[in-house]
Amino acid sequence: MSNRPPLLLFTVLCFGIAVLYLPMLVLIAYSFNASAMVNVWGGFSTHWYRELMHNDQILDAALLSLEIGVVASTLAVILGTLAAIALVRFRRFRGRFVLTALVNAPLVMPEIITGITQLLLFVAMFQLLSWPHRGYTTLVIAHVAFCTAYVTVTVQSRLRSADRSLEEAAMDLGSGPVRAFIDTTLPIIAPALLSGWLLSFTLSLDDLVISSFVSGPGASTLPMVIYSKVKLGVSPDVNALASLIIAVVGAGVLIAGTMMRRAERQRLLDMQMATR
Amino acid sequence: MQQFLAALVKRYGRWLIILPPLLFLVVFFLIPFAYSLRISFADTALQVPPYTSVWNYSADHHLTIRLSLDNYRYLLNDEVYAFSYLYSLRTAFFSTLICLLIGYPMAYAMARSSRATQGILMMIIILPFWTSFLLRVYALEGIIRENGLLNSALLWLGIIHQPLQIMHTSLAVYLGIIYSYLPFMVLPLFATLEKLDHELLEASADLGSSPWRAFFDVTLPLSMPGVIAGSMLVFIPAIGEFVIPSLLGGPNNLMIGRVLWDEFFMNRDWPVASAVAIAFLVFLVGPIAIYQHYSAKQQEA
């Protein structure tokens, strides 16, 4: 195969990338529009960003979303890593089939079905046990459930490729299995844990459908507030908010990605030095 | 004593690892489905929660189970449900097809670029996936609404004299799905195309195949796992999509996700909503099984 990529292919690639990015760039441009009218350019202004700082509804929702995001992704990393270890390291155990199905199901299940079924369970549970109250608790539980799946898949592939000889060596030298795992394998799969956490965090921060179902009165996450504002019509402060989120997440992913790639390269170098 | 404890941990220690995720997911993911299945056989009632109990355990120790098929009968008789299933199916199918037609050349171009470029292109394709889905759908509205960028540009160029009505039509729903799910198509395709054995293509070129011929005889069949994985990754979420038809579509673009939402929040008919969800799930089992099969195959490779 020639290395010269056909022009047609590259045209489509560039077109596709343009399509992916143009709407976001336009949105960011609109957010600096002094005019509240969407089709009139009233000059450059940071008015809508200042407006945002005084909108308590949005600030409260943002705080709630961030808090849920941090708690849910941390719990999801713990559960997801345990599930990944179980699936990769333990060849045979009772419940393996169920666990495999349950960590794969949320990846393909339409959110709306997950949301409805979880709400029905929470309502019934509350009748029986007076727990959980719909709101913060149910939001965290629901987010942990779908984030765990993503963490498991991320950690699983990393764990599969991890070399076990170091861990076995540590065990030969007298470490217990847990100690050996923590000392040797955990550092190797740490980047997967980090990307699993980041993925969970962004998914949690972005979730609208499941949250709308399982949340209760008084607990509105950021996407729920944005959705209800957008549904009512174009509001310029949503433009500012959206631009902020896109910029922060974009920068975060770029930085994390670069750092992880650098760490990976360093690790490979270290390994080469060690085996020389 | 300590030896006994150590032996205990050695024997059952693995359950300390298996049980937390297993129990959590069983309670908060599996049981909800079983429970919804049960409610879908109940009747609507004016109480909290708003449905009747399927089984009753009376004072004289008689267990009566009453399964009501009314909800499913209702689904079959009301045209709205059949219509929205078919409409969702059609919308998801054609969006997937268009994603494939755009995504395949993109993935192919990526696979044929140099290693360094591949890394950068991967990042560019993945980045929108990390930024908010909801906000991207909202951002698309800025392009296609009546006074949005597209209409302004076309009017300015003199191609049209009246703004096009795209918002609140099927076209907007298609554009929304294609725009949102294109990265899901490109990434698995790229993963298979990148691993493709280039020597096979060279061999077919040496044997006198034209590039198109070689593509249809060699590349396309070999990339089928990627095609199927990518298609399912677009098709499955697209069919249950709620945000896109709700924000971009009009009142006629009744996708099943929207019907479910309305049934739940506006009509508050939980048994019917459960029945719709269960019936919908049954329709999805096929595509999900296909996806699992091919993604398992890809993992083995």
- As a whole number of angstroms, the C-alpha radius of gyration of chain B is 25 Å
The residue-averaged pLDDT of chain B reads: 85
Oligomeric state as shown = heterodimer
Reported for the largest beta sheet of chain A, the result is: none
Give the CATH class of chain B.
Mainly Alpha
CATH superfamily of chain A: MetI-like
Low-pLDDT residue spans of chain B: none
Number of helices of chain B: 13
Secondary structure: number of strands of chain A: 0
Q: Report the order of strands and helices of chain B.
A: HEEHHHHHHHHHHHH
Could you name the CATH homologous superfamily of chain B? MetI-like
Coarse morphology of chain B: globular
CATH architecture term of chain A:
Orthogonal Bundle
What would the principal axes of the Cα set say about the shape of chain A? globular
